[in-house]
Amino acid sequence: MATASLRIDLDAILSNWRALDALSGPQTESGAVVKADSYSLGAARVAPVLARAGCRKFFVACAEEGADIRQAVGETPEIYIFGGHAAGDSDMIGDLNLIPLLNSPEQLNRHFEALPGKPFGIQLDTGMNRLGFEADDWFKAAPAVLHAGPKLIMSHLFCADTPEHPANLAQLTEFRRMTEGMNVPRSLAATGGILLGKDYHFDVTRPGMGMYGGLPFAEAKPVVTLSLPVLQVRDVHPGETVGYSAAWTAEVPSRVATVAAGYADGLSRRLGNAAQVWFGDVPCPVIGRISMDLITVDITHLDDTPREFDLLGPRQGVDAVGEVIGTIGYEVMTSLGHRYERHYVGGAS
Ligand SMILES: *Cc1c(COP(=O)(O)O)cnc(C)c1O
């Protein structure tokens, strides 16, 4: 097999979703964030597993993603769109019964004009300054909005991965001020907010990364294994170089394995001469430049010749790889390319 393979453990995703659900207690309903194709893991496979386990609210970034989720989970679950009701999306939102989280007076007007009586939610800005109604606009619009019966009012925390950051309490206070007494289901917490404790849970939570096995949910079960098959092994003499730009030079007689994956698969060039891959329990340095389709690995210290290495797995998750290249696990995971053979295990609930 000459294609790198991505093994996705659907049972681990489900177990992480349930573990996060248990943290927020029985009064709070756990939704699931499946935007960006479930963070690249394949929403068409992930979402139905969660739906069968009782998840009734899915969250995506835009209407097109919502259409894919509708196809995957059928007509019953609610599908919320963080980006709201964008120009040109009215037909798709109406036909597929998607629920836009309206972000501005402009979106509110668009929704009420194009799809009167159709479900919607509201996104409030409580300090992130990214998406959502500002307080002034919101209090002006609130009477008409509340009369129309929004399904959900939400906001998003911007420092939830740093529990002691004062912005968390400031946003919580602002969210309460903007929603007090409105008698509409409320949602504030993504994975980080769930871990902040019950004040942040409200009626609905929106876990994403924690389900998929990454920080800030440190107790998450690992979900992905990325295995890179060996295409060729060679001996390299001292003084010879490996790969583009001669970025690695053998200092001793060396053995080098070439594996099938590269930056076209979403593996950053910054992994070159910096990361390691795993042969069972043994780490092996990635040497030289990352090519478009190939990576070279120093296996001088191994007795065996591996058939494949793991770049992601229980010993090295997306957060560890992110640390090597100066980014977060979220970016490593959502960069995972389309060329991998995705293998799914579990998920038959
Ligand atoms: C992506 C996103 C989430 C999920 O965040 P995680 O940190 O992955 O749990 C929740 N809410 C909003 C608004 C988001 O954009």
Q: Can you characterise this structure?
A:
- 29% of the residues lie in helices and 23% in strands.
- With 349 residues, the chain is α/β, with parallel strands linked by helices.
- It folds into 2 domains: 10-212, TIM Barrel (Alpha-Beta Barrel), CATH 3.20.20.10; 224-345, Lyase, Ornithine Decarboxylase, Chain A, domain 1.
- The strands form 4 sheets. Strands 1, 11, 14, 15, 16, 17, 18 and 19 form an 8-stranded mixed sheet that branches.
- Strand 7, helix 7 (135-148) and strand 8 form a beta-alpha-beta unit.
- Helix 1 packs across helix 3.
- It is elongated and about 75 Å long.
- 46% of the residues are buried.
- The model has no long low-confidence stretch (mean pLDDT 97).
- Its cofactor is pyridoxal 5'-phosphate.
- One of its GO terms (molecular function) is pyridoxal phosphate binding.
- Catalyzes the interconversion of L-alanine and D-alanine. May also act on other amino acids.
- Keywords: Isomerase, Pyridoxal phosphate.
- Its EC number is 5.1.1.1.
Radius of gyration, in angstroms, nearest whole number: 23 Å
The structural domain count equals 2
Low-confidence stretches: none
CATH-defined superfamily of the largest domain = Alanine racemase
Described by strand count, sense and barrel closure, the largest sheet is:
8 strands, mixed
